[in-house]
Amino acid sequence: MSLLWTSGDLVAATGGRPFGQMVAGVTGISIDSRTLQPGEAFFAIKGDQFDGHDFATAALKAGAAMLVVAEGKLPALGRLTVPMIVVPDVLTALEKAGVAARTRTRAKIIAVTGSVGKTSTKEALRHVLSAVGKVHAADKSFNNHWGVPLTLARMPEDCDYAIFEIGMNHPGEIRPLAKQVRPHIAIITLIAEAHLGHFKNMDEIARAKAEIFEGIEPGGYAILNRDDPRSKLLGKLARDAGVAHVVGFGENPRAHFKLIACSLQGDSSTISAKIGGKDVSAKIGAPGRHVVQNTLAVLGAAYLAGADLDRVAPALATLSAERGRGKRYLLPHPEGVVALIDESYNANPTSMRAALELLGATPVNGSGRRIAVLGDMLELGEQTAKFHADLAEVVVRTGTDMVFLAGTEMSALADALPAGFPVEHRATTEELAGLLTKAVRPGDAIMIKSSLRMGFSRLVDALISHFPAQAGKTKRA
To answer: What's the pTM?
Structure first.
């Protein structure tokens, strides 16, 4: 495997000092001894709960070629016979390595933020741009104060495209990360109610997301959702930040990347769009109207990055949803098949509505039912009860046949549903698991969604375990 960093370059990038007999270089960067691969450098970051220095021995056993450690921890680690780079602060050293990686690359850099759809859009960009070049992108949702610099530090010098996801919970969090990434193209997917408990209103959320504009390279592009009511505010903020080109995507007649027509199926969609003056038709392997919307931004970013749309658009056909973000399973019931939609990663009112719409578009077989399994939406502030109760209209309109609810906040939805509507509400996720597995019938379509802290991925795992596929493999829709 080729070297990601020579030892000399990494020492220079971090501003540290070498300690011990240095190796030629490292093949990667890790901050987790559990996932570290042989030949990588282990950055012993001190987090809120764990100190990476406590796992130095585990990292060496996993095959770490080098440690990056804090000066203050060196006396306790000096007995280890392994190359080290010694720095004042390890997280700061990781940030410096990320900045150095950004400086040395010639890749087109794309950054994605927004209240919903960040990771799915990032993964779609990774997928389609891989059809035309070498792509580097963040693992999972590495979008915070350590995830972004880690993704930067892992960026190969010779990649053609690099995609970064940038998230936030509070004002001021995106700004320093955007200035590290320095994107040529920045996408804001949508402004929604996520983390509203930390903000006075939606305009404040928009302003926090708009911090990404401050990192855009001179001559770069901001891509905004023209169907978002706050696109006008975002456009002004982009121009105020000095962004050279502000463009939009959506159905709006003034959108630069415009949806002309779309057909939504249970497991896919087909679209016709105008992208940079070019007519583009494509099948999208992942279903949902919200996926169609963000695909316009994906195609627009690819176009602005100079990618060949004739090769990019066909790649959308093999796009699939990620675990926790719409991934589908076909579970073998003794008397048929059950469709499971895993939306368990997170939830806010906008994404919850989109998931219910997706359930409504999912076909059922025979006497099967559409079942929504919903958990509390967190960090919504004073309007929490209203946001939960308002989901009742969507549940009924989308043809959902019954709901299973967990969490204290979901009592507002249980109370708002029409009299006699089939509903089971429990205080905890664990209490719901047994009820759900017993209730499933052949032909059912089940959608599971909640905020991450509710742990609804355990319900997904419970269903997969309860209905195991032959040969130990679960079919995927």
So the answer is: 0.89
